[in-house]
Amino acid sequence: MTKDTEFGPAWIPTTQEDKEDVRLTLEQLLEDSLFRRSGRYSALLHYIVEKALDGMSAELKERTIGIDVFHRPIDYDTNVDPVVRFCAGEIRKRLAQYYRTSTDAVIEIDVPIGSYAPLFRRRTALVEDEQFVPLAEPSSPEAGESVASPIFPGRDQSRPAISSPSFTRRRMVLFTSAIALILLCCIAFAFKSRFSPDPLKEVWEPFLNRNRPVTICTGTPYPVTPDPVTESPTDSPNLSIEQHFLQEGHRISLPTAATIAQISGFLEAHDQAFVLTEAEANSLDNLRSRPLVLVNANNNKWTLLLLNPLRFHFQSKEDLSYIVDRDYPERLDWHVDFSKPYIQQTEDYAIVARLFNPTTKAPVMVLAGIGSNGTQAAGEFSVSPQALADLARMAPRGWQTENFEAVLKVEVIQGHLGATKIVAADFWKAN
Question: In the listed set 71, 102, 127, which residue is the last one of a domain according to the structure?
């Protein structure tokens, strides 16, 4: 006798034996290669399962998890540090992959979208194959004698009955066809889930799983008083500690900080080491052979330098700063007038670019707006699966290994980000 199986409805383990069964399943999961090589995903999954077994699912909130599992400070901002959301999303994908291939799992652990509280389901018998027993030939009744049915008293069994084997065969044909159709749908769904492109992974793949840390390089405003000879920022050794930190050159905007948090949180969620530096503290030699993320435009000389040869790049003229389209140089509508009051700004523009630069000999990601709002929008765009899926729909086949630039138009409402959309994009083969 064979059995087809599936996982039953959600179930709450209440007895000690049930809880031990769940813990055994958790151990098997954490030993699988999908989780064994990631301390963060394993730690988060272990934490939420144990909380649920202890009856404390209601405490599984993003901030609480960030503090307990990822050692964030009590007052950390979950909007700019999405490490919990990133890890939970990755855990969902890995659990789905595990249960697609596992045939001996007795209990399913699921983390539904929109919640961090896990659900548990037991594997149950769905259908048991029927065993067919040939029907015995009925004994011939004596002439004129009728045989009463043991099931339906009074029914005359001497009359021909519907053939049971024929009926059963038709039922089995229908049942087998239905099962085959269900299996085909499951296979098609699994194939699509496994092989559907993941634009987030495709965009960031060159920066992940590397032996060298990713360098996040941000620009900062110049100090108020430049060196009178070189007209460049100075940091005199005679400055006091107070003077050192009160220089305007030691301030970055909140949108820039949010962008750095977005990228660092994404890299951290993928177990990718990173370092944070300032543009003015780096030489070209320091940036060579390192995967590089450039944040900001007009106060980051490396952004301006690496984008300058490309189709979309930044230029400034007096109070006007704009993105130039080399194919349409007369277009000047992607601009910001820096002479206007900040609160009156209604739009900003940004460039999101990924290129394999022959100068740095490593992949480069540029997240830069004309203004700070544009930079923040570029950072959010770069780690948004939906936004990158929109970009992928504009891309030619094979774009995953190509360079690209995208120009974003960003709505600004009372100093805050509004909607962001792609207004232009360019793709070309890496050298």
Answer: 127
Structure tokens at 15: 């007895």
Answer left, alpha or beta for residue 144, where phi above 0 means left and psi between -120 and 50 means alpha: left
Per-residue pLDDT tens digits for 80-134:
788 899 899 899 989 988 888 877 788 999 998 888 999 998 877 543 433 433 4
Measured CA to CA, the distance from residue 54 to residue 61 in angstroms comes to: 15
Planar angle of CA 21, 27, 29, nearest 5 degrees: 105
> 3-state DSSP call for residue 93?
helix
**Which of the 8 DSSP states describes residue 129?**
P
312 contacts 366 by C-beta, under 8 angstroms: no
Whether 93 and 207 map to the same domain: the answer is no
The pLDDT tens digits for 314-359 are: 999 888 899 999 999 888 889 999 888 888 889 999 999 999 877 7
Residue where one domain finishes, among candidates 64, 95, 127: 127
- Phi then psi for residue 156, to 5 deg, are -85, 110
Are 410 and 369 in contact by the 8 Å Cβ rule? The answer is yes
Question: In terms of residue numbers, what domain contains 424?
Answer: 201-223+249-428
